[in-house]
């Protein structure tokens, strides 16, 4: 009896995996208070911007230095803006729930950079949250993230040498280990809704978002691997009396 059950279990779980609905993003309230921990970077086409971790709240949980939601939120979106003091709504989803079937619909750049691009972004963002980088290194991380999502609008020569190394390291890691995002269950992605020009930016963080049944089931099964089968022009610093 036991042998027959063990032979049947992988088949049953694989069958369940075949019918699990796509994980769906959940409504998330975002707030940016204008604080940031990185340096100011002036190498991009839109002038001087702040970098690194940004302060505010995600679903009412404060993010920033010594706040319960972690050191801040991380922006991967250079060309959109979120004004300091702005509230907006985002679709929040666990990064491990992203896959080739939903990456285009549930992220800002999925149709442009795909799973490989988001695996590179996740690698860099995870490094930020786990290594406690200083302000200069945070700036380099931001430059690297923005380079990867810019579709060539940010030139290679405009990002610093450290940022260039971060980009090539992320690309080499994904090339070696693949573009699965299952290892990044500690990270959450908050994509502005609505999206488009003059809307807020896509952010990453570690504040959990309540998941629907589909998302929860997806992550549960992903954990078993089917049983062997932050306008926030980041925000512009107050340069010559001008903000974002």
Please give the structural blueprint.
Layout: H1 2-19, E1 26-36, E2 40-41, E3 49-50, E4 54-58, E5 61-63, E6 74-75, E7 87-94, H2 110-131, H3 135-149, H4 161-177, E8 188-192, E9 203-205, H5 213-228
Antiparallel strand pairs: 1-4, 1-7, 2-3, 4-5, 6-9, 7-8, 8-9
Helix pairs in contact: 1-5, 2-3, 2-4, 3-4
Describe this structure in words.
The chain has 244 residues and is an alpha+beta fold. The chain has one domain (2-228). The protein has five helices and nine strands; from the N terminus they run αβββββββαααββα. The radius of gyration is 19 Å and the shape is globular. Mean pLDDT is 84; it is low at 1-22, 213-232 and 236-244.
Which percent bin holds the helix content? 25-40%
Order of strands across the biggest sheet? 5-4-1-7-8-9-6
Order of helices and strands: HEEEEEEEHHHEEH
Overall mean pLDDT stands at 84
**Overall body shape:** globular
The multimeric state of the shown protein is single chain
First-residue to last-residue Cα separation = 67 Å
Main sheet overview: 7 strands, antiparallel
How many structural domains can be distinguished in the coordinates? 1
Low-confidence stretches: 1-22, 213-232, 236-244
- Report Rg: 19 Å
Number of helices: 5
Report the strand count.
9
What fraction of residues sit in β-strands?
15-25%
Structural class: alpha+beta
């Amino acid at each position: 009896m036991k042998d027959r059950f063990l032979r049947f279990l992988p088949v049953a779980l694989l069958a369940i995996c075949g019918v699990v609905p796509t994980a769906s993003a959940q409504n998330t309230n975002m707030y940016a208070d204008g604080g940031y921990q990185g340096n100011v970077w002036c190498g991009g086409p839109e002038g001087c911007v702040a970098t690194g971790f940004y302060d505010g709240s995600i679903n009412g949980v404060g993010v920033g230095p010594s706040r319960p939601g972690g050191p801040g939120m991380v922006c991967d979106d250079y060309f959109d803006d979120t004004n300091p003091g702005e509230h907006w709504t985002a679709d929040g989803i666990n990064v491990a729930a992203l896959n080739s079937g939903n990456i285009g619909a549930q992220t800002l750049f999925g149709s442009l950079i795909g799973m490989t691009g988001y695996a590179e972004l996740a690698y860099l963002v995870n490094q930020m949250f786990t290594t406690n980088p200083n302000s200069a290194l945070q700036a380099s991380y931001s430059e690297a993230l923005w380079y990867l999502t810019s579709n060539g609008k940010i030139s290679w020569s405009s990002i610093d040498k450290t940022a260039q190394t971060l980009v090539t390291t992320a690309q080499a890691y994904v090339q070696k280990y693949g573009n699965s995002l299952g290892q990044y269950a500690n990270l959450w992605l908050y994509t502005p809704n609505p999206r488009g020009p003059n809307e807020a930016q896509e952010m990453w963080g570690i504040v959990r978002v309540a998941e629907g049944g589909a998302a929860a089931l997806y992550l549960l099964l992903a954990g078993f691997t089917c049983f062997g089968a932050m306008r926030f022009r980041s925000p512009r610093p107050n340069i010559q009396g001008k903000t974002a």
